[in-house]
Amino acid sequence: MKRYFSSIFIVFLCVTSFAQDSLYKLGPNSQRKEGVPKGIVSKYEWQSKLYNNFREYYVYVPAQYDSTKLAALMVFQDGHAYVSDSGDFRVPIVYDNLIYQKKLPVTICLFVNPGHNTKDYPDNRFRASNRADEYDVLDDRYAMMLMDEIIPELKKKYNISNDPKMHGIGGLSSGAICAFTAAWEHPEYFHKVLSQIGSYTNIRGGNNYPSIIRKHKKKDIKIFMQDGSNDLNNEHGDWWLANLEMESALKFKGYEFKFEKGSGTHSGKHGGAILPESLIWLWSDIKTK
Question: Is 2-282 in CATH node 2.40.40.20?
Answer without folding.
Answer: no
